[in-house]
Amino acid sequence: MKPSGIIKEPSILQAALIFAAIAVLLLVIFGSGLGIAETGFIKAVGEIQATLIPGTGTEYWSVARAGFQASESWKGSIYVFLGVLAGMAASILVFREFEPSHKGFRNCSGGFIGGITLGFGAAMLFGGAVKYFFDTLPMLSLAGVIGVIFIIIGIYVGNMLKDVIG
Amino acid sequence: MSGAFMWAGLGLGFLLGFFIHRARLCINDAFEHHFFRMRYGRMRLLVLLTALCAIALNLSAWVKGISPEALLYPLGLFTIAGGTFLGVGMALSNSGLISMFWKAASGNLRSAFAVIGAVMGVVVYSILFPSLRPGLYDFYFNKVSLTDFYVNAIFFSLVLAGLAAYFLSRDS
């Protein structure tokens, strides 16, 4: 029997309350909110990079580790990220929501170019939009307010560019 | 690192990932739907969650005596440049840094290529970092200030709660 109700399709309020509760637990344990999952992605890329092309980007990784992350957050982030991937996989498998799309080369190239830009910006910010919307902005950092404004401008500009790039 | 720390991370991550997929949480979708499709459901979740996080994180940091400095960043040119790159990348790849994983796993080819691109983007940036650092990171508009932090935080939480109430009252 498949789960239903709040597990299958939480309402907006239920989902927001669940995420806020998880954010509080993450803050208490790791000293970071929901954005820790994005930190985990960046750290995971760093681990892959150190294994495959050792000696590259060492200055960036030392700054990322020391300057912009709480140490507990940096250490635990990769576990949270792996847990997030497992949770997403479980949700897709349990509810059988795999729907492959068969769109053309233009769609793939647009995604690839977007991915490179996204990764470049995330590395520059030491985190992604979740970190800025749900950690930094709620904690009243001016960096959060400015960061969110420019993310929104970027989304608007990117949607305009979609017609050109695909 | 203790095993409990690791299992706590994996467990909370699992819950987070499961509900991110169930709620279809994606910041890019929220703005795209709001600006271009006139659908407000995702935006309501985004604003409500930001407001709830403002209240919950500030209260728990205050009650538990956790320093909020870990969540406050200095503001510099990198915030502006990084935010713009991130936003453009989100729009072009149709996903955010976390939502691209559930979209790719659900069979979205564009997001699958975005995952590969994002890994390459981080690697490229880490290699270019030494030449970009002087311009982007060595000039700060301001350092982190905690002056009247909690007074501002409570005020800001109320503003966000008002915004959330506004969006919740709209039809999706």
Bulk shape of chain B: globular
Roughly how many Å apart are the termini of chain B? 45 Å
Low-confidence stretches of chain A: none
Estimated structural class of chain B: mainly alpha
Percent range of helical residues of chain B:
over 70%
Which sequence of strands runs across the widest sheet of chain B?
A: 1-2
Rg of chain B, alpha carbons: 19 Å
What global shape of chain A is seen? globular
What's the end-to-end separation of chain A, in Å?
42 Å
Give me the strand/helix succession of chain A: HHHHHHH
Let me know the average pLDDT of chain B: 82
Oligomer: heterodimer
What is the CA-atom radius of gyration of chain A, in angstroms? 18 Å
Largest interface: A-B, 124 and 112 residues
The total strand number of chain A stands at 0
Biggest pleated sheet of chain B: 2 strands, antiparallel
Order of helices and strands of chain B: HHHEHHHEH
Describe the structure.
The complex is a heterodimer of chains A (166) and B (172). Chain A is 73% helix and 0% strand. Chain A is built from seven helices and no strands. In chain A, α2 (36-52) crosses α4 (71-94) and α6 packs antiparallel against α7. The longest helix of chain A is centred in the middle third of the chain and has 24 residues, at 71-94. By secondary structure, chain B is mainly α. Helices cover 74% and strands 3% of the residues of chain B. Chain B contains seven helices and two strands, in the order αααβαααβα. Chain B has a two-stranded antiparallel sheet. In chain B, α2 (27-37) runs antiparallel to α3, α3 (41-64) packs antiparallel against α7 and α4 (77-93) packs antiparallel against α6 (109-136). The radius of gyration of chain B is 19 Å and the shape is globular. Chain B starts with a helix and ends with a helix. Classes of the chains: A mainly alpha (166), B mainly alpha (172). At the A-B interface, α1, α2, α3, α4 and α5 of A face α1, α2, α3, α4 and α5 of B.
